Structure to design on (234 residues):
């Protein structure tokens, strides 16, 4: 499915971009909190961890899928497990940052110096990119899971296949019969055969090819000489 491959590429590239943004926001917050007397931002460390894992794994999955076929990083079952885990990390980062944003948003304008106010405002950005990274990842994994369930119901188990493989094609059953042998359930009915062959009567024996002479009452052909009696005539 070409649309699924395109969807996968867009989601992985977008999630990588969100990871870069979270890495910058979380790293900047952690470096600033060490020098200033600011409340501890719990989301910053989680954002850095999420960004590092996503930034290392997601581009590798894209590049390896382009360069070769058969890598374990491109297996559907591996993608489902790993991308779901990365999505959970993005969701946790966004939820943690939004919780801090709800606590500190009103007080951001009263923070001093201006550098601290900027850090306070960055919490909302971290919350937004956390959710923006989570939604596409789970949308892709749920879509892929639904496609797998649909094909499994048709008898195609492609969990250990690859998204770019041709395994997403529907396999039609082999109904070809041997030459001269009608397939099961496709026997032609008598009147259908007669319609195809107008000169043939349904279930009629073929006409005789030789003409036999007419028989008499005693089984002797007409015109044959009379049979000789074995007894003497008087």
């Amino acid at each position: 499915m070409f649309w699924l491959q395109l969807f996968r590429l867009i989601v992985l590239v977008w999630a990588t971009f969100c990871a870069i943004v979270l890495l910058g926001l979380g790293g900047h917050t952690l470096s600033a909190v060490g020098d200033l007397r600011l409340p501890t931002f719990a989301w910053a460390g989680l954002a850095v961890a999420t960004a590092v894992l996503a930034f290392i794994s997601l581009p590798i999955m894209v590049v390896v899928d382009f360069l070769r076929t058969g890598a374990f990083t491109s297996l559907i079952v591996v993608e489902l497990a790993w991308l779901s885990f990365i999505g959970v990390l993005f969701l946790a980062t966004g939820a943690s940052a939004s919780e801090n944003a709800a606590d500190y948003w009103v007080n951001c304008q009263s923070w001093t110096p201006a550098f601290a106010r900027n850090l306070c405002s960055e919490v909302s950005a971290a919350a937004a990119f956390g959710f923006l990274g989570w939604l596409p990842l789970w949308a892709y994994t749920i879509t892929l899971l639904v496609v797998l369930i649909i094909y499994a119901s048709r008898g195609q188990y492609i969990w250990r296949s690859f998204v770019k493989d041709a395994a997403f094609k529907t396999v039609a059953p082999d109904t070809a019969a041997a030459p001269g042998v009608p397939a099961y359930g496709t026997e032609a009915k008598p009147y259908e055969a007669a319609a195809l062959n107008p000169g043939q009567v349904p279930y009629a024996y073929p006409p005789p090819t030789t003409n036999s002479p007419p028989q008499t009452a005693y089984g002797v052909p007409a015109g044959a000489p009379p049979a000789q009696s074995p007894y003497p005539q008087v």
Notes: The chain is about 55% helix and 0% strand. Helices lie at 2-33, 42-67, 76-104, 114-153, 190-196. The radius of gyration is 42 Å. Residues 170-182 have pLDDT under 50 and may be disordered.
